[in-house]
Amino acid sequence: MSIHKEIFMSIYKIMAIVIIILSAMAFTVPDLYAGEYLGELCWLVSPVGSPQTGVLKLSIYYPGGLHLLYTGKMVVGTQQVPYQGNFELIDNQLRGILLNAGFTQNAVFNQSALILLELDTLSGIYAGYTESTNIQQPPDIQYTSGYGALTFVSCPAGI
Amino acid sequence: MKKINILIIGLLFAVTVMASAVEASEYIGDYCWNVTPQGTAVTGLLRMGVFHFGADHYVMSGTLTAGAVIIPYRGNMELINSTYVGSLINAGISQAVIFNQNAAFQLDTSFNGTYKGISNFYNTSGNQVTSTVDLGTFTKVPCP
After folding, report:
1. Closest approach of A102 to chain B, Cα-based (Å)
2. Quick check: A90 and A110 in contact, CB under 8 A?
3. C-alpha distances in angstroms, A9 versus A13, A21, A22, A23, B104?
4. β-strand A93-103 against B69-80: which pairing, if any?
5. Gap between the Cα atoms of A127 and B101, Å rounded
6. Which of A10, A46, A82, B136 is 20 to 30 A away from residue A113, measured at CA?
7. So what's the ipTM on this one?
8. Which of helix, strand or coil describes residue A4?
9. Regarding the domain delimited by B24-141, which CATH topology (the fold level of the hierarchy) does it fall under?
10. What single-letter DSSP state applies at residue B85?
11. Contacts of A158 in chain B (CB under 8 A)
12. What is the pLDDT of residues A14-69, one digit of tens each?
């Protein structure tokens, strides 16, 4: 074998080894996913014990895996309060945490709620509590709890 | 294919079909505000990395720096009727005190505005909770 042929064979062997290593890495490195904005979804919010309903409009982001993140707002009459939270896919349910904070001229409040949505309907229930106070020092903190139904609906026009 | 993968694909398909105004999301950078609590001269610097989900929706993660103290924050922001309305949440610990804060803010289109919130402080040694109402202003500044 000539010296040139030996050099070419060595190069081919090295290239083959590099390709095999890169192929192995491609199949063994965990999947990397850039994430994707899925759009805006809406739910009719029906609190138990109250005739007033609201519309929860959330914009959903899928970062990968079994996780969803969202930000959005609750619309009740002319009031619009921002909300944020997450969903995790657990046992055929989307289970998430819904958080908000807001204020009026004389009061300030925040809410923490659990959401459970069935995967086949995207409808379900929520339960949470609200912490609120008049704007005064020291604050007069009040806690109220509430729960109700979330019904997956098409987003109404204009909200 | 695992059942969970089928569920995920089904969920993504349903959400994609039902969702409106699908568009790209992107990180749009770090933004900073001077934080001035009402009645004090103390000013902290709020630095938030802002992620634009799409449409009028934003999610933020960042820090509040006050002197040598740096506290992580997360929050969101919705553009509602020409006002950026949002919330900020933190949690922290200082020696025997565990605290958290939930605050709401409203910013004009120059990104200046006011905030109001509630802070709770749990003293582990005395097993007592004290609370404060937090009021102040956000003034947008270039990030240092």
Report:
1. 5
2. no
3. 6, 18, 20, 21, 69
4. unpaired
5. 21
6. B136
7. 0.80
8. helix
9. Lipocalin (2.40.128)
10. E
11. none
12. 455 445 444 544 444 455 777 899 999 999 999 999 999 999 999 999 999 999 99
Tokens 């002319």 -> residue: A78
Helix, strand or coil, per DSSP, at residue A120: coil
Query: Please, which residues 84-113 of chain B have a Cβ atom closer than 8 Å to chain A?
Result: 85-89, 102-104
Torsions phi, psi for A134 (to 5 deg): -70, 155
Contact B16 A72 (CB under 8 A): no
| Facing residue for B80 by CB, picked from A71, A73, A99 | A73
Stated pTM of the model: 0.80
- Buried-exposed string A23-43: b where 16+ CB fall within 10 A, e elsewhere: eeeeeeeeeeeeebbbbbbbb
Nearest-CA distance B144 → chain A (Å): 28
